[in-house]
Amino acid sequence: MTSLHAPSIIPVAGFKSLSYKLLSTIFIWALCILVFVSQTVLITWRLEDRGVVINQMGNLNKQIYRLLLTSSREESSKQFTKQITLTREALARLSENVDSVTTYRADNTTVQHTLVDIEQGVDHFIVAATKAYQGTDNLSELMQQADILTTNINLHAQAIERDNTDNIHLLRIIRLCLIALILCSVAASFWMLRRWVINPLTLLNQTIDRLTQGQLSARLHLHSHDEFEEVAKKFNLMAHHLQDMYAHMEDKIAIKTHALLRQKQDWELLYQVTSYLHANTFGQETLQIFLEKILSPQAVDGGYLSLTDATQQKLNAAYQLSEPLLAKLHNISLDEYFASHCDDDDTALLRIRGDGKSEVSLWLLPVRYVNTIKGFLVLYLGADKTLSEENVRLLKLLNAQLAITHENAYLNSLHKQYAVLEERNLIARGLHDSIAQSLSFLNMQFQILCRHPNLSKEISLQENITLIQNGIHHCYEDVRELLNNFRTRIQYQSVHESIEAVIVHYQKQVGLPTRLYILSDEIYLDAAQQTQVIFILQEALSNIRKHSGAQNISVVIDNDGDFCMNIEDDGCGFDYDEVQRLSEAEEAHIGLFIMRERADQINATLYIDSSPGCGTRIRLIIPRLLPEGNS
Questions:
Q1: How many whole angstroms separate alpha carbon 219 and alpha carbon 239?
Q2: Long-range contacts from 71-76, C-beta under 8 angstroms, 24+ separation
Q3: How far from the centroid of its chain's Cα atoms is residue 146's Cα?
Q4: Strands 514-518 and 553-558, how do they pair?
Q5: For a designed S-S bond to 558, which of 369, 519, 573, 587 qualifies (C-beta 3.0 to 4.6 A apart)?
Q6: pLDDT, averaged across the chain
Q7: Residue 92 to residues 83, 86, 95, 116, 129: CA-CA distances in angstroms?
Q8: 531-569 burial string, b = 16+ CB within 10 Å, else e?
Q9: DSSP string covering 31-89, please?
Q10: How confident is the model over 538-589, as pLDDT tens digits?
Q11: pLDDT score of 462 more than 50
């Protein structure tokens, strides 16, 4: 089952973080409060300035009345002048403060005109007061002017006071609005906190509770376009994975169980095959059973196994392959094909024509020992099939076990053969040190005896002496031949060389023309078969030399299917039935009996065809199990 992959979370259009929204809201509220506070401060400043102006107007009225009193009394001129100065200073301070007040009003032109009237009235009043002080003007008129001037000043002060009253009302309204704004800010803050933070957290907590209660279909639906929406998406994705895992838990357990069962079966197969290989003698039958064991559990339509070791022995086995396909495999040099088509996984794909015109795909896996390829396993999977990695890995392990077993069998065979050869060398040394030297000594003493002058010249005695001398000579030659045969080293790397070496040595020793015909390019024999074939050939050639009197010998080797060796001579021949009867009754003709024993050791068949005057033909056949379509 394909696992789900988490998609990347992409913020939606118009996404704003929660911090951005909170900061922007706080900024707006702070800006509004700042505006209201600034207006409050500004109005307070205006009230303070106008209060100063009103105080200055009262001070101006006081100075006017003092000037009036100074004019009516008999004061010194110095005192009168001082009062005029105080009056002008009060007027100057009033003018200065009025300028600062009028900057906050839209009707500052009217105030300025009123101030000008007051300044002109004060100037006229000072002039009138001066005249009254000097006695040139009436005091009553001066008092009227003072009343008019103070009235104008009072009217101006009342106007400013009315404006102050309006500002005070405005200040109260602004303060009320500020209080309302603060209350609204608090309420809005609680509302936004609940909407943007508390509600999403509450919904998240409720959804988590539903999940913990087993409601795996619960999802978190938020469209706030902020971090909580991002968290909701990831939470929903987590819940989806959790639901998917729970829903497919049985499938996953089944898959895991199947994988473990498959691994267990693979290890059991590996153990069974390894045990079988180590418990049985390696051969054609073992190879066939091995192929059936490893391919029966696999999803293959057929298989072919070919092994070749250092002795050039080639063993083949087939499993459910047709005869035409087998014939094509026999004609293909798989080692060269594998060397040119091997991939990085140590496998190759072979395409050949099948039974019809369509191509057949075959998978090749090497049977490798260390760095040497011992053979190949060919698998036929049919159409639209392929090998899994697990199958390839298992087959490689099985092939490695087969290669190790094959190499061990070969090494054990060599060890046994070398042990036999060593024993033969010991026997040869024993023969040389005992019988051969004794015969040589007898021959020398007999020759000295024959040259003695007192020896009788009778013809019968001379004939007996000649027979004895010939017997001693033949015995000595037989012992030498046995010594040479015992010391023959078989070249296990090549059957051709071993057979040719025996033929060449025989020609040098006996001098008989011996022709060798090898009809097959390759001869496949294991170490035991090769050893027994050489010994049978030596025994046959020795019998020909001793008994046949032949002039020509031919040896024909054919390995087309079964291994076949034909040894023919043109000698005197013999009655085979009579010889066989005598061999069974009197245990004579030990050479033929030994050849049959050697043939039985390698499951071969020995045929002897001979008749008096017609020569002798010895035929050795070693059967080889050919791959069958349904072997």
A1: 7
A2: 71/129, 71/130, 71/132, 71/133, 71/139, 71/142, 72/132, 72/139
A3: 112
A4: parallel
A5: 519
A6: 75
A7: 14, 10, 5, 12, 19
A8: bbbbbbbbbbbbbbbebbebeebebebbbeeebbbbbbb
A9: HHHHHHHHHHHHHHHHHHHHHHHHHHHHHHHHHHHHHHHHHHTT--HHHHHHHHHHHHH
A10: 888 888 877 788 888 999 998 877 889 999 998 888 877 776 666 554 444 5
A11: yes
Q: Give the CA radius of gyration of the chain.
A: 67
Asked if residue 618 lies in contact with residue 540, where contact means CB atoms within 8 angstroms, the answer is yes
Interhelix angle 459-486/495-510, nearest 10 degrees: 160
- How confident is the model at residue 74, as a pLDDT? 66
d(CA 47, CA 39): 12
pLDDT of residue 619: 92
Dist CA 607 CA 601 (whole Å): 15
Q: What proportions of the chain, in percent to the nearest 5, are helix, strand and coil?
A: 65, 10, 25
Here the tokens at position 463 are 């004939």
Q: How far apart are CA 406 and CA 397, in angstroms?
A: 14
Between 531 and 236, where is the model more confident? 236
End-to-end CA distance of the chain: 39
Cα→Cα distances 631→47, 68, 314, 454, 626, Å? 122, 153, 18, 80, 9
- Quick check: 482 pLDDT over 70? no
The tokens describing 392, both together, are: 């390839």
Structural domains of the chain, with CATH? 18-193 (1.20.120.230), 277-408 (3.30.450.40), 492-631 (3.30.565.10)
> 18 near 196, Cβ under 8 Å?
yes
**Bridge partner list, 348:** 364
User: For the chain, what is the largest distance between any 2 Cα atoms, rounded to a whole number of angstroms?
Assistant: 225
Q: How many CB atoms lie within 10 A of CB 409?
A: 20
Please report the pLDDT score of residue 278 as a whole number: 80
- Mean pLDDT (whole number) for 288-304: 80
Per-residue CA distances from 274 to 280, 317, 359, 413, 446 (Å):
10, 18, 35, 19, 65
Q: Which tokens go with 511? A: 């001098």
